[in-house]
């Protein structure tokens, strides 16, 4: 079948590498937990596989990079790209650290496991009819789904304003990279596709992994999940026309 959407701008979602708390399943929001040695290896492996000229994430094609302010996300960004690429991004003001893509504010649940959160809520007289679900119930003294959606929607609007004039490709760099966290990136993907966070749309994103979003029919009003990516890269201009 023809690749009718080739050349359409893409948004790459990169989750930070493993930390001690991601390995144990603890909710990590504001806590600034560094990457483990294995987490750094995960990101370096991703970089070798998909980052570089002619590969899926090509520095020359990136219009903007948005990074969570947390140390684990900052370190992930620094491992993804070489010194020359990072210097170019910063010189050309293509990098922005933004709290819009920070991890969910977990409030009372910071550092806890799911089982501990649910047990604590039951002790406080909550969830008598159904188990706690962050996508529906949010976090006590943290963010609710509406607050999370609002800040992600603001970032999505900015990204789509950048990409809208280039729906059919061209010479300008228009891809966007977002480096952040497990919950915030899955929430971003839901909002990109137009789903409420409470909607059931199970997704997984491993530490150090890359997800890809784009648009159907070269139309900024038709945001889509790019379910499969050619690991050989985007191809040259002639192949994409």
Protein model, in words:
The chain has 241 residues and is of the alpha/beta class. 36% of the residues lie in helices and 12% in strands. The protein has 9 helices and 6 strands. The chain has helices spanning 20-24, 37-50, 71-80, 83-91, 114-123, 134-137, 145-163, 182-192, 237-240, and strands at residues 11-15, 62-67, 95-97, 175-180, 210-215, 223-225. A 6-stranded mixed beta sheet has the order 3-2-4-1-5-6. A hairpin with a 7-residue loop joins strand 5 and strand 6 (223-225). The model is unreliable at 233-241 (pLDDT under 50).
Strand order across the largest sheet: 3-2-4-1-5-6
Range of strand content: 5-15%
Order of helices and strands: EHHEHHEHHHEHEEH
Sheet/helix structural class: alpha/beta
**Gyration radius, in Å:** 18 Å
**Could you describe the largest sheet, including whether it forms a barrel?**
6 strands, mixed
Global geometry: globular
Number of helices: 9
Mean of pLDDT: 92
Q: Cα distance, first to last residue?
A: 14 Å
Short description:
The chain has 241 residues and is α/β, with parallel strands linked by helices.
List keywords for this structure.
6 strands, disordered C terminus, 6-stranded mixed beta sheet, 241 residues
Outline the fold blueprint.
Blueprint: E1 11-15, H1 20-24, H2 37-50, E2 62-67, H3 71-80, H4 83-91, E3 95-97, H5 114-123, H6 134-137, H7 145-163, E4 175-180, H8 182-192, E5 210-215, E6 223-225, H9 237-240
Parallel strand pairs: 1-4, 2-3, 2-4
Antiparallel strand pairs: 1-5, 5-6
Helix pairs in contact: 2-3, 7-8
